[in-house]
Specification:
The chain is α/β, with parallel strands linked by helices and 313 residues long. The chain contains eleven helices and eleven strands. β10 and β11 form a beta hairpin. The relative contact order is 0.17.
């Protein structure tokens, strides 16, 4: 869909004032992953360190006319080693972000969450889509659509806090979190409604900070003021949420892809809760989505430097 990308463009413009973020790119051995890293480097979003089999990276660059002159390459024998070495570069302080190349997400995340050699923090790792939806006035964060399959209530505390910290890194003026379910009323037969109510009370008690929370909310009354008014919901979040927390991965994945393929939205993906932000891209991503993912990671890395907190990543 050929349209302006005002929300993403604001992210890219904001990053112009930042130094490029040193980023370990794990196994960029196909055209889309290598070109995505190089395009982001040309815009000054990241300073990529290419980690993978040198011969394959150079062959892809030559085949598709991608200029990698001057970019450092750390030679590895295969994708598993690429993931481990990219993570090690972060542990050594040589990279402030991690970017997925042409390896499987599971392979990269296994290296990230390794207890001995990974990038774990006290915070649970979770995924967020930062979505530019043409019909919605604000940038929209959707979590978690890629990492936590069936999160527990304890997991959701970290998922919500990761999303809130991301919203602050992206300079949201006010963070309004809708905890989604199939209905806006608490129903003991629908566990996600009970967990949503618990999360909101935890926010009241200071166990989750930095945002307004409300839930359970159905999707319509989370994002539609008209729906909120029809159902007479008294809420500072309903109808104007800018963070949507889904019950499980299946719901999040379907919601994000519905917005992308039916509503023409772009989705920038990032994983939070590790020592550094992790850029997850897909071969189906548009060029703008890839660049926006790098911009999001750069802003998260900057926020982490400013706060001195590993949890923000």
């Amino acid at each position: 869909m050929d349209r302006p990308h005002d929300k993403y463009q604001r992210l890219l413009d904001f990053c112009k004032a930042l130094a490029p973020t040193p980023t370990a790119v794990a196994h960029p051995c196909d055209e889309s992953s290598l070109r995505g890293a190089v395009d982001a480097a040309h815009l000054g979003l990241i300073a990529p360190i290419l980690v993978g089999p040198r011969s394959r990276i150079e062959a892809v660059a030559n085949q598709y006319g991608i200029d990698i002159a001057g970019l450092p390459i750390v030679d590895t024998p295969h994708s598993h080693a690429s993931a481990e070495v990219a993570v090690q570069l972060v542990r050594e302080g040589k990279a402030e972000a991690l970017m997925k190349g042409s390896l499987h997400t599971d392979e990269l995340m296994a290296a990230v969450v390794s207890r001995e050699t990974g990038l774990r923090t006290a915070r649970r790792v979770s995924h967020c889509f930062v979505m530019d939806v043409p019909t919605y006035p604000e940038t929209l964060i959707v979590t978690d659509a890629a990492v936590n399959i069936a999160p527990t209530l304890a997991d959701k505390v970290d998922i919500v806090q990761n999303a809130i910290d991301l919203a602050h890194a992206l300079k949201f003026a006010e963070v309004r979190v809708a905890i989604l379910s199939a209905t806006e009323t608490v129903n003991p037969n629908i566990p996600s409604t009970v967990e949503a109510a618990a999360l909101c009370k935890m926010a009241d008690r200071g166990q989750i900070t930095g945002a307004l929370l409300d839930g359970p909310l159905a999707l319509d009354n989370a994002i539609s003021l008209e729906s909120k008014e029809i159902k007479q919901i008294q809420s500072a979040v309903a109808g104007r949420a800018n963070v949507l927390v889904v019950p499980d991965l299946e719901a999040g994945n379907m919601l994000a892809k519905s917005l992308s393929f039916l509503a023409g939205a772009d989705a920038a993906g990032v994983v939070l809760g590790a020592r550094v932000p992790i850029i997850l891209t897909s071969r189906a991503d548009s060029v703008m989505s890839r660049l926006a993912s790098c911009a999001v990671a750069a802003l998260v890395a900057k926020a982490r430097q400013e706060t001195g907190s590993k949890a923000v990543a």
